[in-house]
Amino acid sequence: MKVAIASGKGGTGKTTVAVNLALALEEVQLFDCDVEEPNCNLFLGFELEPLEAVTCLVPEIDPERCALCGNCASFCKFNALAALPNKILSFPSLCHGCGGCSFVCPAGAIDEKPRSIGLIEKNSSDSSLTFFRGVLNVGEAMATPVIRALQRHIDESRHAIIDSPPGTACPVLAVLGCADYCVLVTESTPFGFHDFLLALEAARIFQVPVGVVLNRDGLGDSRVEEFCRAEGIPILLRIPNDRMIARFYSEGVPFVKEMSGWKEKFKVMFEMIRAQACKNMGVS
After folding, report:
1. In this predicted model, what pLDDT tens digit does every residue of 89-126 receive, in sequence order?
2. 3-state secondary structure 94-162
3. pLDDT tens across 137-188, in order?
4. Where do the domains of the chain lie?
5. Could you give the CA distance from residue 169 to residue 186 in angstroms, rounded to a whole number?
6. Exposure string for 73-91, b = 16+ CB within 10 A, e = fewer
7. Residue 175: which H helix or E strand, with range?
8. Calpha distance 87→164 (Å, rounded)
9. Burial class (CB in 10 A: 0-12, 13-18, 19+), 261
10. Which end of the chain is more exposed for a tag (fewer CB within 10 A), N or C?
11. CA dihedral defined by 154, 156, 158, 159, rounded to 10 degrees?
12. pTM here?
């Protein structure tokens, strides 16, 4: 089962939930798909080894064969190619690697060359927790190919916890599209509630069953709870606005390691997730 940990906005606590849930279960895989800012390992402290370079195929135009017809630039919807009267300009950082430009080129003047956009890493230490993360190169705009490459390392025979990017853009949709269940982490504040609704709408597009973790519970108001009650969305866990939890977070220490009772709470939460996911899949 693949469980995505998502939130409508950054800073809500999804990495805290992903790391502590993975450590509570131990025999699982944890994937940090927040490739623009992967920070799970700040709390895990694993030694990491490079596993795979992620590349994107970009067009390389042979000026000797190019007939300057402009078909390639007209085809590209991402403005990665521009047709000038005497030259085709290429902007590799805008290319999504679809290969369409070479397909429509009547002169066969376009070859595709790989360009590095990121890296996949894995923990090298002997641990019951298997950890992978994707790292997008600084300045790169396309996170989704790195996330896709990371997802290819999921062992389908084991449970996988996936720390999603924040927001509701393409990288998040790439995670939700492969998930069996989505945990939405939110806060009971007006801003948190607004972005929670956006994330919920994204999850519903993929018909992924959803549960909620209320982080910093005790702050704000009751609008998230009232909404969840009305919509039949389960509150899986409440993490209180606790000074001790905040201190462990600031020190990079997962609080399930230091505070008694929380491993059991996360395990109970996972059983709720599994029951709901199995029901959704029609598995008894």
Report:
1. 999 989 988 999 999 999 999 999 999 999 999 998 77
2. HCCCCCHHHHHCCCCCEEEEEEEEEEEEEECCCCCCEEEEEEECCCCCCCHHHHHHHHCCCCCCCCEEE
3. 998 888 999 999 999 999 999 999 999 998 888 989 999 999 999 999 999 8
4. 1-45+124-279, 53-114
5. 17
6. beebeeebbebeeeebebe
7. helix 170-176
8. 41
9. exposed
10. C
11. 70
12. 0.89
Closest to 214 measured CA to CA, from 34, 21, 12, 18 = 12
Structure tokens at 152: 């290819």
Q: State the Cα–Cα distance between residues 145 and 170, nearest whole angstrom.
A: 10
The residue count for the chain: 284
Helix axes 223-231, 190-205, angle to 10 degrees: 30
Residue found by looking up tokens 């956009």 in the block = 117
Type of residue found at 228: C
The residue to which tokens 């300045």 are assigned:
139
Which H or E run includes 259? none
For the domain 1-45+124-279, what is the CATH code?
3.40.50.300
DSSP state of 213: E
